[in-house]
Amino acid sequence: RVQQALEAGELCLHYQPKLDLVSGALLGAEALLRWRHPQRGLLAPAAFLPTVEHSGMAAQLGHWVLEQALAQSRLWRAEGLDLELSVNISPRHLSAPAFVPRLEALLARHPDVPPQRLVLELLESSALDDAAQARRLLTDCKRLGLRLAMDDFGTGYATLSVLKQLPLDQLKNDRSVVQTMHV
C-alpha cells in the first residue's frame, strides 16, 4: 500500500524549523515524512515506516524523500532562504548497495543546492550495526560535501570511542537524555 501511496502522491514532507533559541533566528529545517492517507488522515512515520523498513522499499522511499527535500531547498534558495536542511536516513537505506552513487546522482540533479547545506541524520543503531561499514559510507558522504548527524543519541549503546571513529558534524541527543536535566 505504501508503494501505491508513493505513486498516488499521498506522501509528503513537512518541515520542522530549527531555531536559534537565543536570537530566534531560523537556522534550518528538518524534513519529516507524512502520509495523507485517504481513509485514516495524516499519518506520522511511526504508523508506516516500520513496515517499509522490512518491505524492501526503504531505499526507494528514502531517495524519494531526498529528492523532495533537495527540490524544496532549491525553491527556498530561489526565494533567498539559505537554510540547512536535515533528512533522516534509515538503516536499510544507508546500507543499500548503491546508496552513495544514487546520492551523488541526486546531488548532480540539484547543482544549485550546495551539498554542505544538506545534513543526513542517522539513527544511533544504524551506525552501530557495522561501525566499519558505517565509517566507510559516511566518509563517502563527507567526500560529497554533505554534513552528518547522529540522531536520537542515547537510545542505543554507542560509546564515545565508536563516535570518534565516525565523521559526524552533529550529535542530536534523544529527549530521554535531556528531559531530566536542570537548566
Query: How would you state the average pLDDT, rounded?
Result: 85
- The DSSP helix count reads 9
Regions with pLDDT < 50 over 5+ consecutive residues?
none
Summarize the helix and strand pattern as letters.
HEEEHHEHHEHHEHEH
- Helix amount, in percent? 40-55%
Q: Count all strands and give the number.
A: 7
Biggest sheet descriptor:
7 strands, mixed
Radius of gyration: 17 Å
Distance between the termini: 45 Å
Q: Quickly give the structural class.
A: alpha/beta
Give a concise summary.
This protein has 183 residues and is an alpha/beta fold. The protein has helices at residues 2-7, 49-53, 58-78, 91-94, 99-109, 124-129, 131-143, 160-165, 175-178; strands at residues 11-19, 26-37, 41-43, 84-89, 118-123, 147-153, 170-173.
Walk me through this protein's architecture.
The longest helix has 21 residues, at 58-78. The protein is globular and about 45 Å long. It is an alpha/beta fold and 183 residues long. Strand 6, helix 8 (160-165) and strand 7 form a beta-alpha-beta unit. Helix 3 runs parallel beside helix 5 (99-109). The protein has helices spanning 2-7, 49-53, 58-78, 91-94, 99-109, 124-129, 131-143, 160-165, 175-178; strands spanning 11-19, 26-37, 41-43, 84-89, 118-123, 147-153, 170-173. Strands 1, 2, 3, 4, 5, 6 and 7 form a seven-stranded mixed sheet that branches. It is 42% helix and 26% strand.
